[in-house]
Amino acid sequence: MTLRLQHSWEYRLITLAEEAFNSQLPSIRISANDHELEAAYRHCDEITKQYSRTFYMASGLLPAEKRRSARALYAFCRVTDDIVDEFPDKEQARIELSAWRLRVSEAHPQSNDPVALAWADTRARFNIPCGYAEQLIDGVARDLVQSRYETFDDLAAYSYGVASTVGLMAMHIIGFSGEEALPYAVRLGVALQITNILRDVAEDWTSGRLYLPLEELENFGLSENDIHRGVVDDRWREFMRFQLARNHQLYSHSMAGIAQLDADGRFAIGAAAELYRAILTDIEKHDYDVFSRRAHVGLVGKVVRLPGIWRRTRRTESA
Predict the structure, then answer these.
(1) 59: number of CA atoms within 13 Å, CB side?
(2) Helix, strand, or coil here: 282?
């Protein structure tokens, strides 16, 4: 299977993925006992269940050991992200993020630090290169210094740091054929993060952030004042049609990578991707209004999609 790269940002981000792929591996298993580990993984399970119903459902399609490690990965990412959001003082947030970076890099975290403990065990069990976690923390830290992005290439680089890195780590938990799988995970991560961005325009604006590419807003005759006012007019509709079309293309170009994953993880990753992609359809269905409501896919909408997703991922096994 040959992957054609279509954009310059893809080359740059795949280079970052390759660098992290070849970074240091965890050296030893942690020394915690089974009771401490079980409690740590249960804590991560509860965090995942509370904050991401879609990821919780999708990860539930994995075998038990991979499922609990996928949720430990989610909890690690969630805590990292929350540090930036929960400390309004940026200097304090930097201090807390630096302390967290040290805690999650330890080979033997304390039992009273359950997310760090479960994550350390997951890293060791699945040989997850340390570079990906470093890139994720660096990506999240950008929110402390940057709240605007001029071009889509700039936004793709941000999306790699906060989302593609997650997919690349998840790929080690799932199991994959080899380094040729990296570009697909990079693309899917960007697609997932852009979906977040398009859904959360109003929420991000309230937090003082605008992740939409400023250059593209201007190309469609839009300004930050239009975002502030929550304008849904023909300019905004055309802008959003353009954004959604590109994001659908990213999803389509990443899905072939599912065939590169171990068979017992394909349904889970396919479900996570397609259920998230359905948010784009919900945005379109509601006339691109992301200001007065938060686009979502309800439980029924998720469940009815699962048989089709299962059939499509099954076809990749025989392809």
Answers:
(1) 26
(2) helix
